[in-house]
């Protein structure tokens, strides 16, 4: 069985398995990711990395279907966070950077000021 993600003829991902559980996990991991993104957008907290809400919601939804999938997705999220830790001020920093760009400042100055005002965790 193949699981292929493509858009407009461009293939982005291809996975192969002989286990129906793997195939169902891949399908529902993508479905619950979309649902978790929608949930986070409706329940956004300004001073929180959006992934905190998104990851929790996706794991919760997968857990309703299969506890093993919930654990598997949690491991995936922990792996992501090793290389890209939560940054609760990223949204505020991005907004501030946009404001500074409108003032015509250089990218070097923008980054300096933004990280002074909203330091990384």
- β-sheet strand percentage: 5-15%
Average pLDDT for all residues: 96
How many domains, as an integer? 2
Helix % is 55-70%
Tertiary shape? elongated
InterPro entries: Imm63
Domain Immunity protein: 3-78
Protein name: Imm63 family immunity protein
Structure description:
By secondary structure, the chain is mainly alpha-helical. It has 2 domains: 2-83, no CATH class; 88-121, no CATH class. The protein contains 5 helices and 2 strands; from the N terminus they run ββααααα. The protein has a two-stranded antiparallel ribbon with strand order 1-2. A hairpin with a 2-residue loop joins strand 1 (2-7) and strand 2 (10-16). The chain starts with a strand and ends with a helix.
Topology:
Blueprint: E1 2-7, E2 10-16, H1 20-42, H2 50-65, H3 67-83, H4 90-102, H5 107-117
Antiparallel strand pairs: 1-2
Question: What is shown here, in short?
Answer:
The chain has five helices and two strands. The chain is mainly alpha-helical. A two-stranded antiparallel ribbon has the order 1-2.
Spell out the key features of this protein.
2 domains, 11% strand, two-stranded antiparallel sheet, mainly alpha, 121 residues
